[in-house]
Amino acid sequence: MEVATAGRPTADPDRLTIEVSNDGTVSLGISDISLVVDETYVAPTDVSITVVDGESETDDTDLWLPGETLDIRIDDDDTEADMTTAERVSIVTESGVRVDANIAAVEITAAEMTEGTETDPAELAVDVDNTGAKTLNVSTTALLVDGEAVDIEAGETTVVDGAERDTETSRWAPGETLEIRIENDDVEQDISDAETVTIVPDAGGRDSAAVEN
User: Are 64 and 30 a contacting pair, CB within 8 Å?
Assistant: First the structure.
């Protein structure tokens, strides 16, 4: 098994979403797997599980074939574990195979567009806190402006940890802030009138915010 994502959307902080693939050669029974969130057992029958195979999806099966992915959604009401503060999830098969993943979460604390002038282009400034328990990768984090993907590496990214500022690293640890600065001329599309931004780490979790002008 391999956990592709394990995240807590900021807009829905009492929900944990997990994607885990069966990368083995043996079919597994969904009802036989165990879910553990911060050492609290969660029965698979108490949560929402969808089996994804390419473009097809079903929640009406107990069979998890090799190559298929489980989309698991755990709501706060499904378990005694607190989804808003959960840091780790484990998935265990009946045969004892176990995979663990730290939970990813982010929060946009500022999103502002500086108006352009005759000499300087408009600039989008976004500050995002890593509020989860997983170290994230800046270069594989997606930035959406008004729903359209923008190359995050087209501008300047800085990881801030207290008084320390690093413009070269791609490592974005829990508790650190990612500062993104993108000038309108840095990207193909016109972002000068941006209304919303969304940050989506590839490890899971996401947050959206309105852009102040």
Answer: yes
The residue among 102, 81, 76 whose CA lies nearest residue 18 is 102
Q: Which two tokens stand for residue 26?
A: 């043996």
Distance CA 134, CA 108 (A): 16
Class of the domain covering 2-102: mainly beta
Q: Which CATH architecture has domain 106-210?
A: Sandwich (2.60)
pTM for this model (two decimals): 0.86
Could you report the average pLDDT of every consecutive run of 10 residues in the chain (213 residues)? 92 91 93 92 90 93 95 89 90 91 96 85 95 95 94 93 95 97 91 94 94 91
The span from the CA of 163 to the CA of 174, in Å, is: 16
Whats the size of the chain, residue-wise?
213
CA-based torsion, 86, 43, 39, 49: positive or negative: negative
| Domains 2-102 and 106-210 agree in fold | yes
Can you give the residue ranges of every domain in the chain? 2-102, 106-210
Task: Say whether 56 sits in a helix, a strand or coil.
Answer: strand
From 23, 16, 51, 61, select the one nearest 37 (Cα to Cα).
Answer: 16
Closest CA to 12 of 174, 197, 207: 207
Contact criterion met (CB below 8 Å) for 192 and 113: yes
* Alpha carbon separation from 9 to 14, 16, 147, 191 (Å, rounded): 8, 8, 16, 24
What does 86-121 look like in DSSP terms, one character per residue? Answer: --EEEEE-TT--EEEEEPB-EEEEEEEEEPP-SSS-
Distance, in Å, from the CA atom of 106 to the CA atom of 81, rounded to the nearest integer, reads 20
